[in-house]
Amino acid sequence: MSTHIETRYAASPAEAKTWDTAQSREALHIATLFEAGNIRLVYSHYDRFITGGAMPVAAPLPLGSPDPLKAEYFLERRELGIINVGGAGTVTVDGETFELGNKDALYIGKGKRQVVFASADAAAPALFYLNSTPAHVTYPTRRVTKADAEVVTLGAQETANHRTINKLLVNSVIPTCQLQMGMTELKPGNTWNTMPAHTHDRRMEVYFYFEVPQGQAVCHFWGQPQETRHIWMQNNQAVISPPWSIHSGAGTSSYTFIWGMAGENLDYGDMDHCAITDLR
């Protein structure tokens, strides 16, 4: 049982233009989030955003405070969002236990000292996807299910982007400092997400792709609107999206993804749109 953490540094658009495929993946792509009996974390210097995964199997997994945080405990100066993308499990927060089924979410506010992950069945372990950001105020811990979410349906079958957006840990549902998380489910036969493309220079994002069928993949597009690049994504992988970058994707099949955001404001609609015909 261990916690693995790595650091990713921020880059300017000018620097990113020079990257080849390997450099793009090294800077932005998160290949492994779930490892049996471990917690894996990636610390990004974009808004000090942490992306991670916890996969408890035989024994519960306590969330420690890795050395780079220089904190007595993980949530000393942070808030945490969790969405379970695996089997049923529990998250125990300072002695209070919350049951999380598949696609249930949990928000934990700043100041909670102990967070412990566990699976209900080791043969079908929970997969807790984690997003964490710096916090300045303590808000209550709260479980949020899809039934509690603010739901928006967008797109159309004709443009292959008919999708349902479940806003789970957002300020219209619960109070947070800066973290926002939600889940977008594509309708069967649809492959595109987040069109028209946009940036929001006041916030960064991380996309986590899951429910990608075996043998299929998602092509994630990033970069400035007139200087786009792509990264091929497999199931249960994530990608960091800088604030100056578009973030959109198209799969070889339908899939689901979780978006997590942090930055200057909590306005979900704060976007700088780019016409599809202006993309380069």
UniProtKB/TrEMBL annotation:
Its cofactor is Zn(2+). It is an enzyme of class 5 (isomerase). Its EC number is 5.3.1.17. It catalyses: 5-dehydro-4-deoxy-D-glucuronate = 3-deoxy-D-glycero-2,5-hexodiulosonate. It holds the Pfam family KduI. Zn(2+) binds at residues 198, 200, 205, 247. Pathway: Glycan metabolism; pectin degradation; 2-dehydro-3-deoxy-D-gluconate from pectin: step 4/5. GO terms for molecular function: 4-deoxy-L-threo-5-hexosulose-uronate ketol-isomerase activity. Binds 1 zinc ion per subunit. Keywords: Isomerase, Metal-binding, Zinc. InterPro entries: KduI, KduI/IolB_isomerase, KduI_N, RmlC-like_jellyroll, RmlC_Cupin_sf. CDD domains: cupin_KduI_C, cupin_KduI_N. Belongs to the KduI family. Catalyzes the isomerization of 5-dehydro-4-deoxy-D-glucuronate to 3-deoxy-D-glycero-2,5-hexodiulosonate. This is 4-deoxy-L-threo-5-hexosulose-uronate ketol-isomerase. It comes from Chitinophaga pollutisoli. The gene is kduI.
